[in-house]
What does this fold into?
Amino acid sequence: MDALTRIRQLGMPRRNNELWTFFPVAKIPTQEFPDACASEDDYSEENDFAALLPLAKNARTMTRTIPDSAEEMAMLKCNNDFGHTVLDIGKNAKVSLEILDNKVAHDIAAERFDINVGENADVEIFFANPACDLPLRFRHFNIKQAAGATVRFSSICKDTAIGRVSVECHLKGEGASFDYRSLHVLDGNASQHSRLTIYHEAPRTTSTQLARNLLSGSAHVSYDGSVIVGYDCTGVNSSQLVNTILMSEDACVSVKPVLKIYHDDVECTHGNTVGELDAEQMFYLVSRGIPKKAAQEMLMRSFAQETFLPLPDSPAKKRLMASTEGAVSSY
Amino acid sequence: MLSIKNLKASIEDGTQILKGINLEVKPGEVHAIMGPNGSGKSTLSKVIAGHPAYHVDGGSVELDGKNLLEMEINERANSGLFISTQYPTEIPGVNNVEFLKMALNSKRAFLGQPEMSDEDFKKLCEEKMNLLEMDERYRERGVNDGMSGGEKKRNEILQMAILDPKVSFLDETDSGLDIDALRIVANGINHIMSPEKAVILVTHYQRLLDYIKPTYVHVLRHGRIILSGGPELALKLEDQGYDWIEEK
It folds into this structure.
């Protein structure tokens, strides 16, 4: 079944679909689709509208192969409202992949990335783009990892409108590891949503999720993270942590952790904290003579930077830390 | 220098903790405040600093003739007040040295002085760290982050040394210190002290006062200073406790 047919079958997203529980679905404009769909793969199992949309719109697919053992730094940028990138990364390759904002002419943009990671490859995927005022943007990642493959997925979002990043990660080979880190620094009416599903499909696979949010104005962030551990997947280790600081009365965060575990010998944790800047820490800084605004900024910066501090030194970390500094300073 | 007159303060539920504190501190003096647990010693330091958990019901606190109670918290510090609390707050992620530099330059900006250069600040920091026998690891750590009780107290005195306040109010600086650390911290305080400055020490024990000789010793109980005397008063308290004062 092609993507267009599948979209017609599913219909437009609705809040009673658990994939879209927190998303302001009424803001998605009704789409005009082409008469025929160019996608040849079978999408009958795909349930996410955002994953289907670029394909149903006949986005030109860019395919890239990174050979075994290659070392590459790459930047990806779509040249249209809708984009589809297929990336095949060979065994033992070491790849740093930065995703830049696409060039958008209309009021909705959607990108899909299918990334296949070979055995023992080491991949970092990140985006830390300037604040985007695009009315509505979807980004969907479908990541499949072979045995021993490591993927570090990191992002900073300062966008001012509505957006959704969805990630489906399949840890298919033994020892594969997925690390997800996101930072939202939002103000005004920004409404940003993360939807993650991590499938542990092999033994001794690991995943970590750390999402941090600094929200002001009437900003809204949602984090809908699922971890699914399959049968016979012994030794799986997974953690999920969402930390939010609300800087205003009207800012809001919605968090929904889901754990589906079909094996006994696993370790899975999840946690969620919501609060204001620590009053005692604020007092301490100000009681040393630091003005209130500067003290707030110091605490916000430390909160934000800790999102990415544990990453190994790399182009991604350098870029993310610099972008964090900028995001907080302009707050 | 520091003049506290009839200071009364309460906590959020309306319970009054300070019930009329009077204290005059002149340049060059060291005042020790002693008293049983819950008498209001820590509250006094926090009220003077402007902690938002306390409400001032009356009285005044003046530093060189300026009413501290009318100032913002950071202005009090920049005017020359330094408060070290009993349990210094940990701030992971805020680098110790960056914090110290920001604090010092905030004070300099308040006083109309130019920002200190990185090179000069590094020298100043090294000098004060040597004084307190602190190793280089302190530079890299977050403010009080993961530090032992003694390390935190030493870090507080480092801040005091760098910020060079007129009046320092040190709340149980000796708690959590081993014998060597106590000597180092006390020597640091003595080194920072000068005829133009004053120190108020809150302590439960004579041992700190063996190193830092107080000009006056005060007993705070039930939110009031009920007895003042010279250094000999601390020795008597160490020997006999506080009950005899009530009997008096």
Summary: Chain B has a mean pLDDT of 89. Chain B has ten helices and twelve strands. The two ends of chain B are 31 Å apart (CA to CA).
